[in-house]
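Recap from last week: sequence in, structure out.
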Amino acid sequence: MDGVPRVPEQWRPDDSAALRFSVLGPVRAWRGADSLPTGSPQQRALLAALLLREGRTATAGELIDALWGEEPPSQALAAVRTYASRLRKVLSPGVLVSESGGYAVRLTDESGVGASLDLALAQELAADAEKAKTTGDLCHARALLNKALSLWDGEVLASVPGPYAETQRARLEEWRLQLIESRLDMDLEQGCHAEAISELTALTAAHPLRERLRELLMLALYRSGRQAEALAAYADTRRLLADELGVDPRPGLQELQQRILQADPRLAEPSAPLAPETAAAPVRPAQLPATVSDFTGRSSFVTELSEVLAAASAAEGQVMAVSALAGIGGVGKTTLAVHVAHRARSAFPDGQLYVDLQGAGSRAVAPETVLGAFLRALGTADAAIPDSLEERAALYRSTLDGRRILVLLDNARDAAQVRPLLPGMEGCAALVTSRVRMVDLAGAHLIDLDVMSPEEALQLFTRIVGEERVASERESALDVVAACGFLPLAIRIAASRLAARRTWTVSVLAAKLADERRRLDELQAGDLAVKATFELGYGQLEPAQARAFRLLGLADGPDISLAAAAAMLDLPVEDTEDLLESLVDTSLLESAAPGRYRYHDLVRLYARACAERDEQPPGERTAAMSRMLDFYLATAAGVYAIERPGDRLIDHLETTEYPGLRFTEGSSALDWLYNEASPLLACVRQSVGTDRMRRAVDLLWAAKDLTESGANSHQYETTARAMCEATRTAGDAHAEGRARTTFTNVLLVSGRIQQAAEQAQLAMELAASAEDAMAMSWAANDRGLTLVHQEQYADSKPFFERAIEGYATIGNRPLEALSLCNLSRAHLGMGNIAMAVEIAQRALSAYLEIGQTLRLANGHFTLGIALTRAGRHTEALNQFSDALSVFGSHRQRLWEGTTNFRIAEVHLAARRPAQAAQHAEQALALGCIGGDRMQGTVLTLLGRALTMLGQVDRARACWREALNLYEQHGGAAQAEEVRALLTPATAA
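Predicted structure tokens:
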């Protein structure tokens, strides 16, 4: 029994600041930023009871019942009066008032200053959310509910005694769950089903009998393509309700199960489109290039295409329209498509997407790359974009469902490149341009675009040059357009030259074009027609412009940055920018974005031909490529150094003559690396078979983050393979050893362990023959890792020890610490748990002493694994939490996923299955180091956690999926383990 507390020391309030109260957690009060003393638990119970009455008076008897129930102390009334008196001294005058034999809290004091209560704010936010939902603004409604839910701070009325507090605690917890269900329902309505699974898994574990949460989980699983798990979740629910309550699932849940069984198409997608949550994730893209103001002719095609697009947008139930324009380069396919797309914009109010697929070049843009860009433009977060082409295409179509969007796919290589990029939904349409006629693109409306008629060609020429100049020399103007083969691009270039030279007459231009040697007889040579038109523009460039045009065309990347261009030209950045902008003015170069430039694919080919023909001395071409490689290598080495302070790998790379960019902090360095990934890797590939291969291999090594991030793994692997083969052919053991090392890293990240073992062994042998100490130590560490993955722990130990010794010899403490981490894993596998913990602690201490940033996460990660095995679960979770923070800040998505898996392991070992399942779901969403086999491991753990939660059917669905992955991608021992789990007696 609580007696009357001792009167505390006098506390004098500052009455000038507003009061704030909280009950959605501990009962607290603040004046401004200052916390106010609220007294003993019973005194806080009195304050809570008054606050929850929302200004209504509570009698003394009601307050006694609220605080003590049916057995109040003998001095209960005196105690209530004492608590009220003390609170009145702490609070502003007029807040706690006495009236009618009772007390009340007024949230406006005598001076008119208002006080606030977190519960009242939460109620207001929830009401506003309901209004926003009613008007269809689900994005705003979600934001309001999230803000309301953020007001909860642990258990409601924490540590407040009494029956009234207990009742209110239950009421407010139920309301919180209702708000969560409402917000999750809106998440699914907006297509965020994959993101909701982890939270729903945890919630259903915490509230297993709450059928609405189970329903939302089933729906989220189904919409994420996990139909078997959705049905298993229903089976778990039905069994639980029967066992615990003796009832069947409610009709709504039963109906959902039937709709999932029938694959109801109305169930597969949300009823509301995904709305943007921030300005950085727009959902109404407007990517169409600018249309030309002097568009001429093509009236029949404009009408035809406009009618097709209008019909596609207006018709209900009609399959999306595809119109494919084919013709030779320079015939005006893009100009026509862009013009028609702009005319049709009003018919596609949800946006327009555009991409140059670079199909005419040797390296067309991969469909998965385009899908990634489109998904970002539609508001999808990077972390939500899957890796595979099939998954990206499915998410793309889901995102477009219910919208009217026009997609312009420019310069396609073939139908295979186009198919994954088609919307596939009614109300959407696609315009495709290509040099080839896409007869194998099913259902496409095909248009063959020929050159202009003489009348249209002359009209275009006149609109650019001016009526006055052409009228007096009509015959010469006809000669000009005829010399251009009536090809729109050639006509535009010729007319632009004339328009820019006021002293020239039309006949002067016609005379220049009469020389067939300057036109290369393009009418009979297909693409040579385009080359002849480019020759007209190129011949008028100033020497510095022409040199820039030739040399920049040598680079293979999809575009080139201003800094890289300056390196190729060996000029200051300011002078380079002036040159490139002047080339943009001549239409020989395009401005892809501020500070980035690109060639049309045909112009690039022409520029290279000019370089081969005109660049003197010939070695200048090689020198330009060498400077670009130096630039990338020097900059990538700088990024590596910022990410890994103290790591001396960069001291062992090939030297560079041309400098790179310098960064002062990691974020901008990583921005550069990921933005330059495609041009950088293209530069490496272009070095195959040249005397630049050693530097190219070292560039690949310094840019190893590109494969560990998961975003550029495929490009990196293709490049590493090419370098392995090229260096082997060249007989350069030094370069080949390093190339094999980079390839080993790719294989380890993707979980192809046997291939990684072979490559690591070969890298060791090559590095030894080349006396390359750095590569030798690196390869030894990798070979040890492959043995750990193959559970040959004792065999791995000598390799790690060799790596540690090698790194110590060359003074590379960070990599020495990395190998110590791996040695800890080996000891763990051998059962030497105490030794494993001690070695991991040494590695972490080394990282902390060095000041490592990214690799510090490896130290925390390894120690966390060792502590998990030692049963020190709380310490392990702290280490994994630190690792997760570092991996996240350095954009190592796959390592984030792997760390979530390890956290799930800890929770499972500590018999916290709900938390284990939640983190396992996050690991699946992010992906893990180790590829498909690791995904199988995560699914196996998730199944174990779900079994402990009583969700047996969903667990078995996870195990079946894991078994399929092991059977497809190797892992006999793991497959056998899962088969045992699927055996009823074992699973039980």
